[in-house]
Amino acid sequence: MGEAAPRPQGASARATYVLAFDTANEVIAIGLGALHSESRTVELVASVEAEARRASNTQLLPRIDAALAEAGVSRKQIACVVVGRGPGSFTGVRIAMATAKGVASALEVPLIGVSSLDAVAWNAQADGARGALAVVADAMRKEVYPVRYTLNDQGIERLEADRVVKVEAAAEELTAAGLSNLLIAGDALRKYADLFDPCGSALAEALWTPTGRGLLLALQAAWRAGDADPFDAVAHDPAFALPVYTRLSDAEENERIRLSKNDPRNLTAGVQDVAPRRDQRASMHDTAILNARPDASGITYKPLDAAHAADVAALESTVMGSDAWSAALVADELPRGDRTWWAAYSQDHLIGYAGGWVVDGQVQILKVGVDPSWRRCGIARELLARVASDARDLGASTCSLEVRAGNKGAHAFYEALGFRSIGTRPRYYSDGEDALILEGPLPLAQHDVAGMALHIDEARASSPAGASPCAEASDFVRPLILAIESSCDETAAAIVDGAGTLVSDVVASQIDFHARFGGVVPEIASRKHIEAICGVCDECFDVAADHLGVSRLAWSDLDAVSVTYAPGLVGALVVGVAFAKGAAWAVEKPFIGVHHLEGHLYANKIGAPDFAPPAVVSLVSGGNTLLVHMKDWGDYETLGATIDDAVGEAFDKVAKALGLGYPGGPVISREAAKGDPRAIAFPRAMMHSGDLRFSLSGLKTAVVTYINNERAAGRDVNVPDVCASFQQAVVDVQVKKAEMALRQTGARTFCLGGGVAANPVLRAAYESLCERLRVRLVMPPLSACGDNAGMIALVALDRYRQGKFFGLDADAQAHANLDEPY
Question: Could you tell me the pTM of the whole model?
Answer without folding.
Answer: 0.91
